[in-house]
Every structure is written in C-alpha cells, then in structure tokens.
Specification:
The chain has 114 residues and is an alpha+beta fold. Helices cover 43% and strands 29% of the residues. It contains two helices and three strands. The protein has a three-stranded antiparallel beta sheet with strand order 1-2-3, with helices on one face. It is elongated, with a radius of gyration of 18 Å.
Length: 114
C-alpha cells in the first residue's frame, strides 16, 4: 500500500511540473508574438521574437525552448510557434520522462510600415 502512495505522489509531482511547463511555454510564445508584432518587417520581427525568448529564464526542468517559426503577414498579423522540451524531475516507471510542448500565438501587427 505504501509503495502505491509513493508512486501516486511521484506522478502528481510530475503533473504539477507539466502544468507549470505548459504555462511557461504559453507565456514564451505570447511574448515572442507580441515582440514580433511591434516590428515593421519580417526580418526584424523574427529577430525580436528570438530576443524575447532569449530573455526568458527557464527552470532547470526545461531542457530546450526554441522559436520554430515566425509567419509575418505585412499590415495584418504575425504568428509565432515555439517548442519546449521538459524533463520530469521525478520520473515514474512506465511513464515517459521527457515531454514536448508546442505553442502558437497570433497577434495583430501594431507597427506601421511607414
């Protein structure tokens, strides 16, 4: 009975870290898209999105956070995609110890192309 309780607690700890990682990835992609939306060109938007991600402080259980794609449509919207790899701190036997989160956010472009 005690071993079952330990396994359940370990799984719950992992679930908490997965929820935190998902929230972090959502924040990261939102920040990248907002930064890109403030730019006047596609190249500047991509650079701004990368810079926004590089300033994020990731916890130790996040092994990778990358900007996968920036789709800049002039005078309309910008869409950013991120990918985050998370290694669980308390791996449970029979359950994967590494997960990937993919995020996407679309923001209206607020910079004028003057």
């Amino acid at each position: 009975m005690g071993i079952v309780i330990v396994l359940v607690v370990m799984a719950l700890v992992d679930m908490i870290f997965l929820v935190l990682a998902n929230s972090l990835n959502d924040t990261a992609v939102k920040n990248a898209a907002r930064a890109a939306a403030n730019q006047k060109s596609s190249d500047k938007a991509k650079d701004a999105a990368k810079k926004a991600l590089s300033t994020m402080r990731c916890p130790p259980y996040v092994s990778r956070l990358v900007l996968e794609k920036v789709n800049y449509v002039d005078n309309d919207v910008v869409t950013c995609n991120t990918r985050m790899v998370v290694k669980l701190p308390v791996p449970v036997f029979g359950i994967a110890s590494e997960y990937e989160f993919v995020g996407q956010d679309t923001e209206p472009i607020v910079a004028s192309a003057d």
